[in-house]
Amino acid sequence: MSKRRQHTHAAPPAAPSTPPKAEAFTFGDAMPVMDRAEILDYVETWAAGQWFEPPVSLAGLAKSFRAGVHHSSAIYFKRNVLSATFIPHKLLTREEFDKWSLDFLVFGNGYIERQRSRLGGTLALKRAPSKYLRRSTDLQKFYQVNGWQQQHEFEVGSIHHLMEPDINQEVYGLPEYLGALHAAWLNESATLFRRRYYENGSHAGFILYMTDAAQSQTDVDNMREALKNSKGPGNFRNLFMYAPNGKKDGIQLIPVSEVTAKDEFFNIKNVTRDDLLAAHRVPPQLMGIVPSNTGGFGAADTAAQVFGANEIEPLQRRFAQLNEWLGDEVVRFNPYSIKTSNSIA
């Protein structure tokens, strides 16, 4: 009998398994390079029909006024000191002076309108809002502009323009703090980022790293479900995990940059605060800032005296320029002084 050949069919080779790969990804929207810094890109005024446009965006300055707490607080502090030392006049009330001085400190331009009586005399002095006033191309008239539709032309010679001089043009004034606007915006961005950081729950973010081979897929799914249920209202709950025959480092909890973000937040807030106070030249002890060092900031009364001599008195002389335009002493101030225990006694 012939032997039958037995043919064996070899099984096809198994496809090589793809080893697991580590994966990294980024999230979050891209941030534009040009944010609000474009309001400083103008270098000169340009004519827009009947009037000149300001060298910087006045709407941008108005929005930036409340960007940082130390920015607006320093301006309000100067305004309050000027208001406290101002002597009201029958033509210029304290309320109108407060508006005028705040406009000048924020925009670098302060406008006073002289309202005349029927006989030609001065009836009252009213503040004209600096944000909406424009100077004509012939530099003789002023317009109050509200958008592109409405405009009001003031009578020639009825507007007094108090301006902070600029080195690039002579039409409008610019505030002294322009160099510190980036610090104010960074301060605001850090606060908003920190607020979103807490609202979206990222402050409790972590990586749950499991390398224990004793855990099955069912155990992993159960832990994933337990973590999902711990989010939302009533979060920060404790979780119990029982892993028989598990290793010591089989489950690790790794926080995600929580400590670093906290440290950077305080550094940014402190650095931007110092920049803003340096730009406004207001002593920190007069702003109600709590010192972080043991030595403190020094005596507040001494700092107030220096501040009054170096900042308040020059501002008072600046506002007194209105008297030369009117031909009458309307703007007057009391000396800025601090009542100490020795002076009271």
UniProtKB/TrEMBL annotation:
**What are the boundaries of the region Disordered?**
1-22
The family database entries (InterPro entries) matched by this protein are listed as:
PBSX_Proteobac, Phage/GTA_portal, Phage_portal_PBSX
Q: Which domain of life is it from?
A: Bacteria
Instruction: Return the similarity comment.
Output: Belongs to the phage portal family. PBSX subfamily.
Q: What name goes with this protein?
A: Portal protein
